[in-house]
Amino acid sequence: MARRLVVIGNGMAGARAVEEILARSGGDAFDITMFGDEPYGNYNRIMLSHVLSGEESDADIFLNALPWYRENNITLHAGVRVERIDKYSKHVFAADGRVVPYDVLVIATGSHSFLPPMDGLYTPSGSVRHGVFTFRTMDDTRKMVQFAQQEHHRRALVIGGGLLGLEAARGLQAYGLDVAVVHSGGHLMNAQLGPDGGAILRRSVEALGIEVHTGSRTTAVLGKDRITGVRLRDDTELGCDMVVVTAGIRPNVDVAVVSGLAVERAIVVDDHLRVMDEEDIYAVGECVQHRGEVYGLVAPLWEQAAVLADQITGVDRSSVYLGSRTATKLKVAGVDVASMGLPGPELDTDEHIVFSEPSRGVFKSIVIRDNKMVGATLLGDSRKVAYLTQAFDQGLPLPEERLSLMFDLGSPAEEEGVAELADSAQVCNCNGVSKGALVSAVQGGCRSVPAAMDATRAGKGCGACKLLVTQVVEWAADGAVEDDPAASYYVPGIPLDKPALMSRIRELGLRSVSQVFAALAPDSVEDAKSKMGLASLMKMMLAEKYIDERDARFINDRVHANIQRDGTFSVVPQMKGGVTSVQQLRRIADVAEKHKIPMIKLTGGQRIDLLGVAKEDLPTVWADLDMPSGYAYGKSFRTVKTCVGKDYCRFGTGDSTGLGISLESRFQGIESPAKLKLAVSGCPRNCAESLVKDVGVVAVEGGRWEIYIGGAAGAHIRKGDLLVAVDTPEEVTLLAGRFMQYYRENANWLERTYAFVPRVGIERIRSVILDDSEGIAARLDAAMQESVDNYVDPWSERDDPPTPGQFRTSLPLTVLPQVPVR
Amino acid sequence: MKIPHVVGPVDQIPFGEGRAFGIDGEQVAVFRLRDGTLRAVSAVCPHKGGPIADGTIDQRVVMCPLHQHSFELETGCSTTGAKPLRTYEVFADEGQNIVVIP
Ligand code: SRM
Ligand SMILES: Cc1cc2nc3c(=O)[nH]c(=O)nc-3n(C[C@H](O)[C@H](O)[C@H](O)COP(=O)(O)OP(=O)(O)OC[C@H]3O[C@@H](n4cnc5c(N)ncnc54)[C@H](O)[C@@H]3O)c2cc1C
Ligand code: SF4
Ligand code: FES
């Protein structure tokens, strides 16, 4: 039988905990009942500030609306308060008389607004006076809006200049009210900011037209029938029509107290979020005290909810919550505020770095202890927040040049962090390789970076982590990292760099990959990892004189399609410049229907992908399509992305589509050390994203064309370098071709232009391509022409496969496709 | 008892490539090395089910096409930390037919 789970409190923590439980299939294990004091489903409390200011409607901020509870078989008692728990008989008692038994109980009662003592706050009957508001719930917010909208209410006074107070003040301004904030602390937001930051924030807030009184406590609310003002400790009186009290929050612990649970400042829980000394009662959110800390922000409660769910469902009993380091990034009254850790130095030895630019409302402060960041505050400019948060969370050692903590002086030196990274930290996000795995590979004898990469496959996905992998290996080897001579080899199995390899191949007249191994590899030993690179290189060098041994190709190049996770393939027909026709579309549709293609997708390269085609079906699919290959699989020229250009677009200054199609027709399918992706845009608006392509062309006013090279926006992002601006499409074609040939001959295997161009240097490339400084321009043009002339559509192999069983399935007993059919 | 299976002529496998066969309910990848010797291993990658017969080989290892785990053709052991492949005895008979012993 399902166990009975009862949750008291239907706010952000309670509902999140239930979601986490459901995500761990807890829906089957538990009958879930939730009680919520508020008569709604769970909403995003943080967004109440936006509801107050009118930027968001209250209906838009629900995280779990009522149907969610029904769909997940959760019994919700909305608007029903729980008054007491009998922990011995395991029942909860609700205000409406309901008594509900539980096997497991979760308390998530959150907090309420604190009303500091002052005269005139309450009516004689003990309720809060009309015109005095707190700011915690949706009802609070609605009431405030209603009141503020009444014409004769002109002036609001907010008591408390913390996050909530400033948000309330800013929100109320939207109703045309004059707003003043009275804050007892010496400066605004003193929980998060030091005095200097507070002073700058004050300027920014005052610039918004909000009056600020700091260091002054409110002692009384004035007025008989209606509110007329407040009195401060120094007897000053400030007039107002409404008062909003945002002077802090207090955890809701009444239920826990009357039920005999452990309560100090809040409900005391252990690292499993279990209430101290209780077997079956857990608590989560702002109502808990964990290792002495009570949190007032959402990030910690997300972490708590996950651990609680691991424990309650038993999915991961080892899961523990060890507390949160709270780093907050907020927009308070329109001002960016980020703060973490200490607001200012505490010890004499603490290092304190401050930058202050009051006129722009920018303030940055960082506190450093033992070369670790222990606190930071950023106001008005939060660009470095991500990096600082990481440095703070992980306790990374910091760059010596402290200035770079505050401003981008190039990217922060990453190696600083390696030693401090946790063993479990994932270094390679593609293959899920942790720092620990790399370290043990090194300890297991991998003394070079490639060896460690081979052993763990770290860095073998998108490649973005290679730098970090290198740093981890170097650190783990403690300086004893062996310089891998192979780093300069074109392919790992032949000990020669690219120029030497090419000249040996020419000297010896080698024409196939197996001949290269026989002649140039140590002991003539073949190497699987080197085959594909050699095949590509030799095809580029020898064109039709190349003896094409199919085993040297990667599977994609053997069957001219891209292998999928289940061993099926994707088919991307050529669609030059992204332009298609009725006939093409109809044919593609017919083929997709006939072959029951599992998924038809528009690619990021402006063409249509037919995914999930079984290997043995490739020839008939190609035949039915009767279109050339789009080369979406090869280390080769891929596509030319275009925009519509001047024939249609009102801004177009050049026929980008026409030029794109002609470039794609000319360079289709030529192999290269890595992919070549091009684009042509009709004007500098760059709708074809030309600035981030291997070769990108942009039409500019005056009938000219700019050529950019070395751009990328994949695993790496780089804006291309301007090679030159020319007058005609013919010049574009010639120079783009010359550059691509230069790249083909000089780039390392798998080195994209985004790495090649900066390595060689744009100046050098310009001088070779434009000024012919090496006297090779004519040869480059001729070599490219030879490759172009040698183009054969690989899909024509469908009629006469060059190797036996070329398209035979490699998983004979598996029914393919296994990819989902859409 | 191990019953040898004849799966057809060796020249259905190009030099340096592999082809897969269903033998006794098991999927077996047979490779013909560039020197003509045969090797047989299980056809499904223990990592994530990749088609081993589509892999790239040399005299020593096969590299799975999906995530490039490598396996020794002789022993099935992975050189990249994956679980091993099963190996099968395989040879060409006088008629140049491939014989696999499951
Ligand atoms: C199909 C497509 C995604 C889509 O559904 O739209 C795609 C699919 C793949 N991309 Fe891509 N890329 C596709 C557009 C892109 C783009 C966008 C573009 O071309 O405008 C990029 C960013 C531009 C770039 O290349 O820099 C892109 C950056 C990558 C990268 C990162 C390359 C890098 O060095 O930064 C890889 C990994 C690699 O090359 O090693 C990659 C690798 C892959 C592979 C080939 C992974 C693989 O080896 O199997 C994916 C094949 C999936 C499959 O099973 O068919 N794909 N990929 C797109 C095909 C475009 C086309 O028509 O040819
Ligand atoms: C205006 C505003 C802006 C905020 N902005 C941010 C921000 O930008 N960033 C940030 O991190 N945090 C912000 N917070 C704080 C954040 O909203 C809280 O940290 C979070 O809501 C706490 O979740 P909780 O579930 O613990 O409490 P709550 O969300 O308050 O949920 C507790 C629920 O339990 C109910 N309840 C209490 N007692 C009982 C009972 N006995 N029986 C039944 N039900 C009961 C309550 O009615 C309430 O619905 C903001 C808060 C407010 C009010
Ligand atoms: S298509 Fe590209 S981005 Fe998408 S999963 Fe594959 S490699 Fe990654
Ligand atoms: S499936 Fe073979 S390496 Fe991943």
Automatic annotation (TrEMBL), chain B:
PROSITE patterns: RIESKE. Pfam families: Rieske. InterPro entries: Rieske_2Fe-2S (IPR017941). Residues 4-99 form the Rieske domain. This is Rieske 2Fe-2S domain-containing protein. It comes from Paenarthrobacter aromaticivorans. The lineage of its organism: Bacteria, Bacillati, Actinomycetota, Actinomycetes, Micrococcales.
